[in-house]
Design goal:
There is one protein chain. The protein is mainly α. It has two domains: about 130 residues, no CATH class; about 35 residues, no CATH class. About 55% of the residues lie in helices and about 10% in strands. A hairpin with a 4-residue loop joins strand 1 and strand 2. Helix 1 packs antiparallel against helix 7 and helix 3 crosses helix 5. The longest helix has 29 residues. The radius of gyration is 19 Å and the shape is globular. The chain starts with a helix and ends with a helix.
Length: about 180
Amino acid sequence: MTKVEFLGALQNLVNTFVFGHTLLFIAAASDLSRLQHATLEFSSPQSHVEVKLDALFAGVTSLKQRPIMVEEFQASLRRAVLAEFFECMRSYCQSTNQEQTLRSAPWYEFVRIARNTTSHQRGGHISWPPEFKKKGIKSVRWNHLEVDESMEGQELIMHDSDIALLLGDLRQFAEQRLS
């Protein structure tokens, strides 16, 4: 993968995050009652599945009536973009022999915790890595957010604005520090 392709992949992840929130914005301004009789189709050359939306949207006119669905969708976007952004960076750095440059970034350990928290075990709950304990790392920090060893098992709270700022910092690092 070239650096241009790599930066394009990172931008695609940012675009997906923004697009997901754009869809929520559009849906919030729409009357959802027309969806209660709709069917969503998933097709491939080998299979076809139809999902009736009545169970999800029956009697629903606004997303305000489905706050848990919206919260879970937003949480899913956050988890996906954090995990995929980090994995894309790590993969690029491994293939271009720049792993040490990545590991030396001031936010690296924080992003590792965020990525692991969103991807493993009880998605969203902090799991302190055993190697941090061995190295004596008791806390990691990025911007205004700090996670420490005593927070293990607690939920990692990152708002969409935090995610957007973090992605910007990681993208800037990729543009300026990686070759």
